[in-house]
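Title: Comparing notes on inverse folding

I've been comparing how different people in this forum approach sequence design from structure. To keep things fair, I'm posting one structure and asking everyone to reply with a full sequence. Here's the target:
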């Protein structure tokens, strides 16, 4: 940590529960109210920030405060929200890597590893990821849980324990994940009941067991309607893995939107990946985007994982980034978020549950700049809204003082480094949590370095 950040950290840690942070900067898009000063060419505004009793007490024009630690023009962001992860299968790479690095290889390796999962194995890896996310400053996470065996829902048992154990540190939500055909029959109803009893979100992937995301099978629409009916009967929201491929026949997204419109579905729907949209004919892509806007669907993009996994052919350079049409979706009024997705498992060999890294890489991969506009919300306020969290992701009076403080002033300073010297505040106090050591997983995985 730099000398300046070390001093700032010590000053805040030694203070009380009520103080000013002077001379802060933030993207104006992250302030819920009117900017307290001029907005510069990078979309940033400078101000003084008062914290009291664990909450933001005031956002005032620069120079209002006469005492308190100064950020010296450094940035302050609300704690980020990670709206799409897979915590129950995180960190299995050292035990079951993906030899081909492609989607089918990931499916095969994960299925093989899942056969040996126990509650203890899942919990150790799951909690390791929570510790990493917490130390990085994340305040809320939605995780998809492997739900192939609804009669022995191990991941769901672990989730409920950790959700309760981590309450007050990370708000934890869950969504089921299983191929669409798994929701047919008695097991499908049982799985929907498990989701409902856990206060969670009904999720699936728009492919059939053993298949990949390609041409829609003839039975797709009846299965999709049945999936919607399971959610409707239980008042559940939906979170769906959609068209995660480079196949032009992968066209589930428009059918999901049309089904939601036709059925008058009122609960929130989030669709993740949607990769194939970027290689569809323009007219079809525009029609899909319009249907998503009409249906009120939110799109969540996993840029690091999809760029890693998609269009991977041995000995051939990838021809596309594997991500969806974020700018076109956003222009049509469709909410767009970014998230971590997989971490150190066969779908993505890397990652550390750090939403600052996700936003930094998303800016580069998806060109979320020139202008940056309101894209900073994609790592906080937008996924928070998809999760029904009203205060998270915003800088506003009365919101919890769960903040990230950076030495970086402008956006290129912020996005050029990992910001490893960030200061994390929770309820206005310095968070002392440290990143967990990789070696903590060795005994669980039965391996050495990953």
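Reply #1:
Here's my take.
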């Amino acid at each position: 940590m730099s000398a300046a950040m070390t001093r700032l950290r010590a000053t805040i840690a030694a203070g009380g529960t009520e103080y000013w942070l002077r001379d802060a900067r933030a993207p104006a898009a992250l302030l819920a109210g009117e900017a307290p000063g001029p907005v510069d060419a990078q979309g940033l505004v400078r101000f003084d920030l008062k914290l009291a009793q664990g909450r933001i007490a005031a956002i005032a024009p620069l120079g209002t405060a006469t005492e308190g630690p100064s950020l010296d023009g450094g940035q302050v962001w609300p704690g980020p929200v990670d709206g799409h992860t897979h915590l129950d299968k995180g960190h299995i790479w050292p035990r079951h890597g993906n030899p081909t690095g492609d989607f089918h290889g990931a499916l095969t390796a994960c299925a093989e590893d899942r056969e040996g999962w126990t509650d203890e194995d899942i919990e150790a890896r799951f909690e390791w990821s929570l510790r990493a996310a917490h130390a990085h400053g994340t305040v809320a996470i939605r995780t998809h849980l492997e739900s192939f065996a609804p009669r022995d829902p191990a991941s769901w048992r672990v989730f409920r324990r950790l959700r309760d154990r981590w309450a007050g540190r990370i708000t934890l939500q869950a969504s089921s994940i299983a191929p669409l055909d798994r929701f047919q029959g008695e097991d499908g109803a049982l799985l929907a009941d498990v989701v409902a009893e856990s206060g969670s979100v009904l999720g699936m992937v728009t492919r059939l067991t053993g298949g990949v995301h390609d041409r829609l099978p003839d039975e797709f629409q009846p299965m999709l309607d049945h999936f919607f009916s399971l959610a409707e009967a239980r008042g559940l929201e939906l979170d769906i893995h959609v068209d995660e491929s480079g196949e032009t026949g992968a066209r589930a997204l428009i059918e999901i939107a049309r089904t939601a419109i036709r059925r008058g579905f009122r609960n929130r729907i989030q669709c993740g990946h949607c990769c194939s949209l970027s290689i569809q004919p323009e007219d079809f892509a525009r029609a899909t985007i319009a249907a998503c806007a009409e249906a009120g669907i939110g799109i969540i993009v996993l840029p690091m994982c999809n760029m890693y996994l998609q269009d991977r052919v041995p000995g051939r350079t990838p021809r596309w980034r594997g991500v969806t049409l974020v700018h076109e979706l956003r222009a049509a009024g469709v909410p767009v978020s970014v998230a971590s997705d997989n971490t150190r498992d066969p779908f993505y060999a890397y990652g550390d549950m750090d939403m600052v890294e996700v936003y930094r890489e998303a800016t580069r991969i998806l060109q979320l700049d020139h202008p940056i506009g309101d894209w900073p919300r994609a790592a906080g306020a937008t996924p928070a809204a998809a999760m029904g969290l009203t205060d998270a992701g915003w800088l506003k009076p009365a919101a919890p003082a769960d903040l990230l403080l950076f030495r970086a002033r402008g956006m290129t300073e912020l996005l050029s480094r990992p910001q490893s010297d960030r200061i994390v505040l929770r309820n206005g106090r310095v968070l002392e949590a440290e990143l967990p050591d990789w070696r903590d997983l060795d005994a669980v995985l039965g391996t050495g370095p990953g």
